[in-house]
Design brief:
Its main location: membrane. This protein is α/β, with parallel strands linked by helices and about 650 residues long. The protein is built from 26 helices and 8 strands. Helix 6 runs parallel beside helix 19, helix 11 packs across helix 12 and helix 19 runs antiparallel to helix 20.
Length: about 650
């Protein structure tokens, strides 16, 4: 606080200087830009839920229909409002978003926090179990990333039927074209997409808020639904109806997990401000306005969102809604990037090619493999279900499952990591988890009507990630055994126990660390019985900063052996930098590398592990096959580290699972 004051107070202490005023203006503009960007990415999913939530609750074709009556309308609107307040505002905005992993959010961030300290925690088994549960939550969120674009865009384009019923046959083709365009622009990055979408979402929330006010003025009694007594009386007095209504009410909170998962893209403050000052008021007005419209005429239940505006305004609203649902899809797509990238860093997935798209925010990334997997999956869902109503039954399960798991992990972290008293944890966790449990139970009634789909997607993702984790442990153990100690290996070289001939030149071996000998180096010595005059063992680290200063780029360690021509080098890169190893090594001074390095002619050696299915009972046979298949998506190391292709030697080794 002192430093900020010193920057904004002038030399006389009575007014800001011109320089400080310009600085404050620039800082305020930057913060505003982040909030606008967050509006353009984070709130798209939850911001478009008014399009389909109320009409889905009272859908007469539902397996468990909710009778349309004035009393039920008040109860449902009140349930929607308080569900949004409790789950989004309290659970996520006020509580869960305080738990982050270096700025990253989402259920995988909570798993990371658990993994960081569970080894020293007295309840290690509980922490490990919760980390596994959290992994299933991440798998559910990935299913959400597939369903949200399909149901959101379909629901908006279906608005064409309120303009002209004959346009209904074009809904699916138009939706497919929009989805193709959305996934094609992902490579441009979240920051540029957010800047483009932000103003559109501001217009969207202004329009739906204004339309909601118009509906409220037609029947102001709907404002009574803001009282929690209507939600409580509906649940308590008509539980047999309200319980099944919860399966559709949950649609009003879709996108809550995206707020948390996208926190690394924009930060907690920007998301909180956007929610409290624009998104929440606009959603509340829209739901109240739709409720008022239905109370005025029950026939309006066919499409209360679009019927809130006059006939002349419905086509423009359909177009705006389509743009907004594209943005809704963007929210979960960027969240899926974050979740999958974090899962890869934790060892649940192979190394994925990740492109960082911002020099100022570490969380803004593009993951090509995840992008195209989602693209194919979303198109498949669109052509298979062909309507938002058919997908609605499947949608709630992913949302409720992920929210419940996130809530559970948060309170566990709050108690054991932040030392929050147990009584306070119980006071917060019990009511929130009871509410989450009600939503899960209600959605289980839709299991045979589509809710099985997200569970199948989640189970498949969970199986892939746990299989990769187990297989990676087996491979790492076998690789460490094959590599052996680096110190012992060099001792044998220096003592002459390993008969080798020294040849001129420089050899650079990429390695995972400094404790074990690179497999490529060991193979070169043991099989070719040669070593180069200058040997550099390189370990690469990625720091959580955009760029690493040049004077901190390289750290040299002679391994304590003096002038034997073998050097261990650690190279650090920022997350925005391309990890170019040759360029970094060029900064080494001759005395640092125990002699001049001829980088123009140096040979680079990579250790490549060829995995084979073995007879040892390390995993079930089908899981071995799954692990081997998953290993093929690993990014190419030579290309990733900028190695010259014509001077890169890949020495393979075999490891059996």
């Amino acid at each position: 606080m002192t430093e900020q004051k010193a920057e904004t107070v002038g030399p006389q202490g009575d007014r800001p200087t011109a320089h400080s005023t310009a600085h404050d203006t620039a800082l305020h503009t930057a913060k505003l830009a982040v909030v606008v960007g967050a509006l353009g990415v984070v709130f798209g999913d939850i911001g478009t839920s008014p399009i389909y939530t109320l009409q889905t609750v009272f859908n007469p074709e539902d397996p468990h229909p909710v009778p349309l009556s004035d009393h039920n309308v008040y109860g449902v609107v009140s349930l929607i409002f308080w569900s949004v307040m409790i789950i989004v505002t309290v659970t996520y905005i006020l509580l869960t978003m305080r738990a982050d992993n270096n700025g990253e959010g989402g259920v995988v961030a909570l798993i990371t926090l658990l993994r960081k300290w569970r080894r020293t925690h007295p309840s290690r088994k509980a922490a490990a179990l919760l980390a596994t549960v959290g992994l299933f939550g991440a798998s559910l969120f990935f299913g959400d990333g597939m369903i949200t674009p399909a149901i959101s865009v379909l629901s908006a384009v279906e608005g064409l039927k309120t303009v002209e019923p004959s346009l209904g046959e074009y809904v699916v083709p138009i939706t497919a074209v929009i989805i193709v365009g959305l996934f094609m622009v992902q490579r441009r990055g979240t920051e540029s997409i957010g800047r483009a979408f932000g103003p559109v979402m501001i217009l969207w929330f202004a329009v739906i808020g204004a339309a909601g006010i118009g509906g409220i003025l037609e029947h102001t009694a709907i404002l009574k639904a803001l009282s929690p007594t209507y939600a409580i009386s509906f649940l308590a007095g008509h539980f047999h109806i309200a319980f099944f209504a919860l399966a559709a009410v949950v649609l009003s909170i879709t996108g809550a997990e995206a707020l948390y998962a996208d926190m690394g893209h924009f930060g907690r403050k920007a998301i909180s401000r956007g929610w409290l000052f624009l998104v929440l008021p606009a959603l509340t007005l829209s739901y109240l306005g739709q409720g008022a419209l239905i109370l005025k005429n029950h026939e309006n239940i066919s499409s209360p969102f679009f019927l809130l505006v006059p006939g002349w305004g419905r086509l423009p609203l359909v177009l705006l809604a389509t743009a907004a649902t594209v943005i809704a899809s963007q929210a979960v797509i960027t969240g899926a990037y974050s979740v999958m990238a974090q899962a890869a860093r934790l060892g649940y997935l192979p190394r994925l090619r990740v492109t960082h798209t911002s020099a100022t925010t570490i969380g803004q990334i593009y993951v090509p493999f995840v992008n195209w997997l989602l693209f194919v999956s979303v198109l498949t869902l669109i052509f298979a279900f062909r309507s938002s109503a058919a997908l609605a039954y499947a949608y709630g399960m992913t949302v409720t499952g992920t929210i419940t798991i996130t809530t559970l992990l948060f309170f566990y972290v709050a108690h054991y990591r932040w030392n929050v008293p147990r009584w306070l944890i119980l006071a917060g966790a019990v009511p929130l988890l009871l509410i989450d449990g009600l939503f899960i139970a209600a959605n289980l009634t839709k299991l045979l009507h589509g809710a099985w789909l997200p569970l199948l997607i989640a189970l498949t993702s969970f199986t892939v990630m746990t299989t990769w984790q187990r297989g990676r442990e087996v491979v790492t153990r076998e690789r460490e055994r094959a590599e052996g100690s680096l110190q012992e290996f060099i001792d044998e070289l220096r003592s002459g126990k390993l008969p080798v001939r020294t040849v001129p030149g420089t050899a650079i071996f990429l390695n995972r660390g400094g404790s074990s000998a690179p497999l490529a180096l060991r193979a070169n010595v043991e099989h070719n019985q040669v070593r180069h005059e200058h040997v550099v063992i390189v370990a690469i680290e990625t720091e959580p900063v955009p760029r690493v200063p040049d004077d901190q780029r390289v750290t040299v360690n002679d391994l304590g052996y003096g002038d034997d021509g073998i050097t261990h080098v650690t190279i650090r890169f920022g997350y925005m930098e391309s990890p170019n190893v040759p360029t970094a090594l060029a900064r080494l001074e001759p005395d640092e590398s125990e002699g001049p390095l001829d980088l123009e002619k140096a040979s680079y050696f990579l250790s490549k592990i060829e995995l084979r299915r073995g007879k040892e009972p390390t995993m079930a046979g089908w899981r071995k096959q799954l692990f081997l298949a998953t290993s093929h998506i690993t990014a190419d190391a030579a290309e990733h580290f900028g190695l010259p292709q014509d001077r890169t030697v890949i020495i393979g080794s075999h490891i059996e699972l």
